[in-house]
Amino acid sequence: MPIVVQKYGGTSVGDVGRIKRVADRIARTRQAGNDVVVVVSAMGDTTDDLVHMAEQIDPQPSGREFDMLLTAGERISMALVAMALQQLGVDAKSFTGSQAGILTDSVHGKARILDITPGRIIDSLAAGAVVIVAGFQGVSPDTKDVTTLGRGGSDTTAVALAAALHAEVCEIYTDVDGVFTADPRIVPHARKLDVVSTEEMLELAAQGAGVLQVRAVEFGRNFGVEIHVRSSFSHAPGTRVIPQEPDMEAAIISGVAHDTSEAKLTILGVPDKPGMAARVFTDLADANVNIDMIVQNTPAEGDVTDISFTVPRGEAALAQSTLESLASEIGARSVTLDVDVAKVSLVGAGMRTHPGVAARMFAALSDAGINIEMISTSTIRISVVVARSDAEAAVLAIHDAFELGES
Amino acid sequence: MPIVVQKYGGTSVGDVGRIKRVADRIARTRQAGNDVVVVVSAMGDTTDDLVHMAEQIDPQPSGREFDMLLTAGERISMALVAMALQQLGVDAKSFTGSQAGILTDSVHGKARILDITPGRIIDSLAAGAVVIVAGFQGVSPDTKDVTTLGRGGSDTTAVALAAALHAEVCEIYTDVDGVFTADPRIVPHARKLDVVSTEEMLELAAQGAGVLQVRAVEFGRNFGVEIHVRSSFSHAPGTRVIPQEPDMEAAIISGVAHDTSEAKLTILGVPDKPGMAARVFTDLADANVNIDMIVQNTPAEGDVTDISFTVPRGEAALAQSTLESLASEIGARSVTLDVDVAKVSLVGAGMRTHPGVAARMFAALSDAGINIEMISTSTIRISVVVARSDAEAAVLAIHDAFELGES
Fold it and tell me: Cα separation of B222 and B169, whole Å?
């Protein structure tokens, strides 16, 4: 029987009524002749509530205990979804990340999946049950401790399970209809994409399109999993993320993503000699800071240079203190931090073969009176950092300049 | 280093402020030179909230999924208690029942502990940490599924761990000062007992003194664990439950217990021939109904008899339907169910050697105009079933007849 993996986010299982609707959808998928594995997040605000209690006790709780706390959330939702299926007469069994064989490293709060040993899942499917798996969590075989995969980890759980089980498709259910050319809250005439290549989705996700986590897309690409992003509130088809690139007739640009969750750091007056950048980013890696965009200019004059980069805002303070101790050691001048920034990205596989895309994007920003603070590009993406207050105007200006909306 | 096991109930860890106070008490015990193992229940109303959600989905959810759901409760409280200790500079590590090696049978909702393999606890104590263990839960080695021990199971977890770890004492923290001669809410002049024998505590617990679970007392008796029942809101000594009987000078009576959580069932007109009672209680046992008090009279005349017994009210419907299918099969006349009953018990090791205790108890009830529906006795206990509306008056009358209160 073909295996379908479905992932339901916190909004989709936000209350008892929604859990019953999710169970109904799962039951239909099962009755259509599929083996079904369901990955669930914690209900609605559960995770936020748990985080809030922890913060009242210790603003920086131990990673081990924090993961132990947060994993209670999916335990609740998965048991309730299993009960709702049983109530519909569908055999169902829930498993924690540990029981489902999601083996990770031991970096609490952002563990990486090392392997999946889905023996209990396979046995339960063979016995005719729908399997419900807690998203976002796993277990470290080294420490035997429970771990979490970090924000959006349930997407990763779902795609990784789909890969391990050779599933036909991994359906990611969310509260929007699919992947759009821009955030519809900012660009009301944004258009839903019926299909997007894995490469483009990777860039869109990495640049802040919140509909799918970048690690999940990476897993999908590496293991050839077909991902289908769709709404849990309708039966309309969503966006298929497919390994192949769209054919030559496809649009040049797939969409505009934006991300206001990062902060920008600059280390000024770094001596321009070999090994300096390596030194900076080795120290940051040792402190477990996730670096996103990095820009270093060739020094215009003299023998010093500036290095700028962006990090998740929650890690900005740690990055700053790490850099400050380093700065005096390597003779850099100072470290600056700007938390009021936004990153706006234009993504499209077609831009490889179409020159002039960057020029058109920068002109659109200039016409809108928006100053560009940093620029970084890949073969299929151009990202700029702008002031946070300019973010929405920038998205709109770029979206319209490339005529991405509904005609 | 001596090992102290402490158990904190749901009220003691009811909110963040209380968790911090509990952590403070644990830290003091640690600083006094003890290895400390802490067993926690779920916070305040958490379990009730989870039960309520499950009931909205399925009034009779699968035991496996219901246990999966409920065990989320202790996971939250144990992680928060560990964090609060770390915040005080005390090394602490929390473990689920499964991680702590609490091995049970696979009867969901009322699993029995089969063995404890506390390897991770011992290692963590040796490494200098305070260990926090989730009460009420374990894992079945047969099915690898998570189980719960049933109501009050955290007491059992604590005493069983104290036995497995050869702890010096098992402190059960609660919201009252110890074990009283009667429920102080009903008898305001009830007296706190400084010491009570295990035998007496067993009877008091079995007869409804809610301060300690009977299975925990049994464990304590079987493995020679000293239990100390005390308040988490004061530092006053509570009640020590000791294996030895009090000396000959001790009081005849230790207290009056009452229990309004049961229902009474009677199967009428059972043919009076060998094997009938066995048949009745075998069927009930197969249906997993917990029987408490059983009364069968010698038939006054004819060849039929009536059998009455009490069960937890939540199991009354199941017991009734089980009996009804049996009744026609064995030729019994009918089955009656009365949910408006209370059981009132007088307990005291001294009554073994003091005749006339029962007579004095029945006279007190008679003087108060209270009708006795069932009587059952052991060597150190006399229990009566009365109408629920008579329960408080019965407790007061008996307590006063034996002059158990403060003088």
Answer: 15
A93 touches chain B (CB under 8 A): yes
Q: Closest Cα of chain B to A94: distance in Å? A: 7
Tens-place pLDDT, residues B241-277: 987 654 544 567 889 999 999 999 999 888 877 778 7
**Residue A337 CA from chain centroid, whole number:** 24
Q: Is B127 on the interface with A (CB under 8 A)?
A: no
Q: Answer whether B71's CB lies under 8 Å from B137's CB.
A: yes
Residues facing B192 on adjacent strands: B180
- Spatial separation of the C-alpha atoms in residues A285 and A22, rounded to whole Å: 40
SS3 content of chain A, % helix, strand, coil (to 5): 35, 25, 40
Give Cα B232 distance to the centre of its chain.
19
- Residue in B19, B22, B53, B64 to test binding to A, most A beta-carbons within 10 Å: B53
Q: Considering Cα of A200, then A206, then A211, then A212, what sign does the dihedral take?
A: positive
* A24 near B CB under 8 A: no
Residue B80 touches partner A, C-beta closer than 8 Å: yes
Q: What is the pLDDT of residues B149-160, one digit of tens each?
A: 987 799 999 999
Does A16 contact B at CB distance below 8 Å? yes
One-letter amino acid of B129: A
Tokens 């001790």, located at residue: B250
A88 lies within 8 A of chain B by CB: no
Task: Report CB contact under 8 Å: B82, A68.
Answer: yes
Fold type of domain A3-175: Carbamate kinase (3.40.1160)
Q: Which region holds residue A240: left if phi is over 0, alpha if psi is between -120 and 50, else beta?
A: beta
For B20, nearest residue in chain A (alpha carbons): A57
Among B76, B93, B145, which would you mutate to test the A interface (most chain A Cβ atoms within 10 Å of its Cβ)?
B76
B80: nearest CB among A53, A73, A144: A53
Tens digit of each residue's pLDDT (9 = 90 or more) over A23-82: 999 999 999 999 999 999 999 999 999 999 999 999 999 999 999 999 999 999 999 999
Of A19, A20, A58, the CB nearest to B83: A58
Q: Is B87 on the interface with A (CB under 8 A)?
A: yes
Measured in whole angstroms, the distance separating CA B120 from the mean position of its chain's CA atoms is: 28
Contact B58 A20 (CB under 8 A): no
pLDDT tens column, B287-307: 888 888 888 776 656 678 888
CB-count exposure of residue B52 (10 Å: 0-12, 13-18, 19+): exposed
**DSSP 3-state of A342:** strand
Closest Cα partner for A370 from A400, A336, A344? A344
> Pick from B115, B166, B169: which is nearest to B139 by CA?
B115
User: Contact B139/B98 with Cβ under 8 angstroms?
Assistant: yes
Q: Can you tell me whether residue A102 is helix, strand or coil?
A: strand
Strand, coil or helix: A324: helix
B82 contacts in chain A (CB < 8 Å): 62, 65, 68
Q: How do the domains of chain B map onto residue ranges? A: 3-175
Q: Looking at residue A299, what is its pLDDT? A: 61
Per-residue confidence (pLDDT) for residue A390, from 0 to 100: 94
Task: Tally Cβ neighbours within 10 Å of residue A319.
Answer: 24
Query: Any bridge partners for residue B103, and if so which?
Result: B115, B139
Half-sphere exposure of A311 (CA within 13 A, CB side): 23
Chain pair A-B, CB pairs under 8 angstroms: 105
Sole residue written with tokens 């219901």:
B66
**Closest Cα in chain B, distance from residue A290 (Å):** 25
A76–B66 C-beta distance less than 8 A: no
Q: Which residues of chain B does A80 touch, with a Cβ-Cβ cutoff of 8 Å?
A: 53-54, 57, 69
Predicted ipTM of the assembly: 0.75
